[in-house]
Amino acid sequence: MCYAIPGNVKNITGNLITVDYFGEERKARNDFYDLQVGDYVYAQGGFVVEKIDEKLAEEILETWKELFFELKKTDVRLSKLYNDKPDLDKDFLKVIDKATYGKLISRKEALRLLLCEDPDEIDLLHKSANFIRQKFLDNACCVHGIIEFSNTCVCKCTYCGINSENSTLKRYSLDTGEILEVVADAVKRFGFKGLVLQSGEDTSYSSDKILKLIKDIRRNFPVFIFLSLGEREDRFYREAFDAGAKAALFRFETSDSTLYSQLHPHSSLKERTRYLKLFKDIGYIIASGSLIGLPGQKAESVIDDFMFAKELGCDMYSFGPFIPHPDTPLSDYNTPDTEYILKALSVLRLIDPYGKILVTTALESINPQARRQALMSGANSIMLNLTPKDYVGFYDIYPNRATVDVSVEKQIADALQLLKSIGRAPTDLGI
Ligand code: 5AD
């Protein structure tokens, strides 16, 4: 998945290459291959992940050619911006106007958008976000696979079902052989080009073991590796990057330091942020975000989270709803409404026209329509769950997770059908 389209290398400057896709040029970083102008490659997240044989590339491009342009046409048609309600509040329209021209909007203006209640305003907010996504990022939609390889965790996050205090949960850890089998299936059988390795903060999984796993994956499979492992030694993250993991998914959870400390008795926002800066320094693509709808969190705080994530230089945003878990201290609180999360994602798109925005599984879990709605409201990235079925139910961060009982084949078929219907290409052409 993320059926990367083969790109043709047009220019090479050090480890930065220019890749052509049917006349569109993108940049990618090449850390792994000896390349010449004219070679064909697959790129993911702005990194070359595979060099491919010319004949094979040409065959694949032939099958893509018509579809590539057809999908774009559908997307352009569905993302047209028009406002047939000229009586909308002038201040609201001013902010929308500014954002659609790619201009920065202020915290106050973003808050005005997030707090809008008028159905016509909400509708225009979503349409504007979709328009901006199309205008600045076109119709590519990343489709990554996630492997949750251990639910063992030393953290005490009060919202999270796998926190160390939850003694009712059965714990599991896949060994590296089992993980490699899942990776082999994902890459060879299903065609995934980007994979997230996720776990709780499992100290029994040594950093050396994970480094070896990353090397084994890169040696055997042309795939872009995201790490989502929480706080580990700085040294580990430096070595993991060199070993071939090029992205880190690491949420800051909330940018309100008081709220952060209440929710995470074991850690601080300062330390959390230090990691994100470290990842950026090392060169990782970073995906981060927070929980929306946390107890005690105001709309102002959500906007602060968006601004904070943008300032950190996130390449991809992962913002999703807080869902109360029955075996946590926050069990009695409410799940936020889908509509609020969708509004928030649209506001985020107006704040950053360029970042990738993920439709989180948490959002899909509170409303089965939400994946499509989010993709039509500014989002452009999804994740499919590849955790083996004997374990996936135990990765119980929140209850009733979407896709827990859906086979990988069906997840892929559903995703492709949806993307096709809205003119999105399951590709990641890079930057
Ligand atoms: N609801 C929604 N998301 C949650 N996470 C953990 N617990 C919950 C919950 N109850 C998210 C955290 C973490 C990610 C792996 O899962 O934001 O970063």
CATH superfamily caption of the largest domain: Aldolase class I
Largest sheet: 8 strands, parallel
Q: What is the H/E string?
A: EEEEEHHHHEHEHEHEHHEEHEEHEHHEHH
Model regions low in confidence, pLDDT < 50 over at least 5 residues = none
Second CATH tier, the architecture of the largest domain = Alpha-Beta Barrel
Distance between the termini: 19 Å
| Overall 3D form | globular
Strand pairing plus helix content: what structural class?
Answer: alpha/beta
Keywords:
431 residues, alpha/beta, SH3 type barrels, TIM Barrel, 2 domains, eight-stranded parallel β-sheet, five-stranded antiparallel β-sheet, 42% helix, globular, binds 5'-deoxyadenosine, iron, rSAM_sf, S-adenosyl-L-methionine, 4 iron, 4 sulfur cluster binding
Task: Write a structural description.
- This protein has 431 residues and is α/β, with parallel strands linked by helices.
- It folds into 2 domains: 61 residues, Roll (SH3 type barrels), CATH 2.30.30; 286 residues, TIM Barrel, CATH 3.20.20.
- The protein contains 15 helices and 15 strands.
- An 8-stranded parallel sheet has the order 14-12-10-9-8-7-6-15. It has a 5-stranded antiparallel sheet with strand order 3-2-1-4-5.
- The longest helix has 25 residues.
- 5'-deoxyadenosine binds next to loops.
- Belongs to the HupF/HypC family.
- Keywords: 4Fe-4S, Iron, Iron-sulfur, Metal-binding, S-adenosyl-L-methionine.
- It holds the Pfam family Radical_SAM.
- This is Biotin synthase.
